[in-house]
Amino acid sequence: MLSEGKAGELLSFLGADTRPDVKSHATGYLLGLSGSRDGCRSLRSQPQLLHALRDLTSDPSIAIAKDCFHALVNLSADETLHQVLLSDQDFLPPLLRNLFDPSFLFSDRVSTILTNLSRHRPSCGPVLQAVQQQEGGMAGLVELFCSEGPQQAAPLHYLGPLLANLSQLPETRAFLLDQDRCVIQRLLPYTQHDSAIRRGGVIGTLRNCCFDHAHHEWLLGDAVDILPFLLLPLAGGEELSEEENDALPPDLQYLPEDKQREDDPDLRTMLLETLLLLTATKHGRQVMKNVYPIMREFHKWEKEPQVVSACEKLVQVLIGDEPDEGMENLLEVEIPAEVEEKLKDADIKEEEQMKREEEELQKKQGEEEERKEEEERLRTGGERED
Length: 386
Known about the structure:
Blueprint: H1 4-12, H2 20-34, H3 37-43, H4 47-56, H5 62-76, H6 82-86, H7 92-99, H8 107-117, H9 121-132, H10 137-146, H11 159-166, H12 170-176, H13 184-187, H14 196-209, H15 216-220, H16 227-231, H17 242-247, H18 265-278, H19 282-288, H20 292-301, H21 305-319, H22 337-380
Helix pairs in contact: 2-5, 4-5, 5-8, 7-8, 8-11, 11-14, 14-18, 18-21, 20-21
């Protein structure tokens, strides 16, 4: 733990007029402290040190400012410090001003701090409020995300997860889904961006937006046409029949044999969960029926147990019968308590089964690697050491 005496001594070295070499040693110490859970939590009760770190992010020394931003990234990753950091009224405004400055050297770290702070709903609201108070507000944030290029001093990939976090809130979703704007349409191409961080952020944003079933018909219609952007990352180059191809949206027809799928299993799962949400309404299920061939081939290709499970849930809806009258909207169906309990038990058992399958797969992979190593030793004439 950081004693009061030690904290006071450190604080005396963090003044704006302190010699740069002394400040550098002090900020380096705080950076090291922020690298561990215990270190972060020892700083939780030292708001003056946190204020000093905040102030020194604008230090003339790039090295000192960099250490302070790095320390704040670490501190903001600890949920127990969120309210401490956000209780400082002077914490968020300068961060956001720097974020919106395309020439600011550490804007990528700013975006990471804001992403960390907005991960959980209680602290997400203050971040959204601070964004809205900036000139341009949410529209400016989306513009910043979509304006990547050499004009920016740093890559801002973490704006993707920031948007996903903010879309937890109904106010953000109302902005994103405003049919008089063109916001969601601008985000769709990023489901296939080179950066997995950007891809994941946009996919997470789309998934959150799809919880608002009132917008499903618009999302699936010509104005947005969300389906190809969710399905292309899951589609491969397998040959489909002419009838199956013709029933698909044009962008999904006759894909090349070397078409690659999304390589991140977590993102594949999120894409499937988003598609499943779009089947909540009768209209969505009718639109989605024709995409079954893509899901069929995906299911054959997929090896990750948790992704296979998500795929099977979607397929069950695609090939299943329509729900009874009055239950057409699956997001509005009230589930009896005893049925909900059984479903929770089934989910727990499913997770346990997937864990066993994953452990078995890892075991087999380990045995296969050992076998190959043994064959290599025999081939080269080496002897195995016990």
